[in-house]
Amino acid sequence: MTTRRLFAIVPAAGRSRRMGTHKLLLRLGTETVIQRLVRGLSGERITKTVIVARRDDERFKNHLADLQVDLLQPETDPPDMKSSVQYALRHIEAHYRPADDEGWLLIPADHPVLEPSVIDELCQAWEHCPAAVMIPTYQNRKGHPTFFRWSLAGEIFKLPEEQGINALWQSRDLAPHLLECNVPEILVDLDTPADFDALKKKYHTQIEND
């Protein structure tokens, strides 16, 4: 197990408007979308998974009650992903006091087909990454999770309101390490019922065997 801690941040405060139902509670085999993601993040290389949800999302809170995660429900619902990340970073700083050379990874909550073995391989690559940011890619397309050195945490709070987290390397002298991997699942997320149907069809065998 690595001596440098790594924290997973999972923004989950969206309202699933395009899906038409709570997409994180949709079932894939014997698990829900969020249960599958949490299981993928439960390896020994990740110190703690921090999930940020809406204050009024009682179904989600109850659903996660038996899982070993830090569930955060801010008094004011985060308006976007960056705000969720900022809230999680404050929590990690206050409760775990990471050192600058430790890290955190960002993965949206709707990435349910990333196998634990894939996340473990990415975490292992991160341990040896000299850059401050590492982004996995598949056929030159950027995916998730994205890894950050803790020394960058403060920079997230300096970004203008209209800029997302990717502005860290789009407008600054910061070159992320792009890790090409043969894993198309790093690109798979869920936004619409069509996405969900396609995912169930494509990954039917994997879902049923997990």
Overview of the structural elements:
This protein is α/β, with parallel strands linked by helices and 210 residues long. It contains 8 helices and 10 strands. α2 links the parallel β4 and β5 (70-72).
Distance between the termini: 25 Å
Secondary-structure content class: alpha/beta
Mean pLDDT: 92
Low-confidence blocks of residues? none
Number of helices: 8
Overall geometric form = globular
Short précis:
The chain is of the alpha/beta class and 210 residues long. The protein has helices at residues 33-40, 58-63, 81-96, 116-127, 153-156, 167-170, 193-202, 204-209, and strands at residues 6-12, 27-28, 31-32, 48-53, 70-72, 103-106, 133-138, 141-142, 146-149, 177-180. The two termini are 25 Å apart.
Key traits:
single chain; 210 residues; alpha/beta; two-stranded antiparallel ribbon; globular
What's the helix and strand layout?
Elements: E1 6-12, E2 27-28, E3 31-32, H1 33-40, E4 48-53, H2 58-63, E5 70-72, H3 81-96, E6 103-106, H4 116-127, E7 133-138, E8 141-142, E9 146-149, H5 153-156, H6 167-170, E10 177-180, H7 193-202, H8 204-209
Parallel strand pairs: 1-4, 1-6, 4-5, 7-10
Antiparallel strand pairs: 2-3, 6-9, 7-8, 7-9
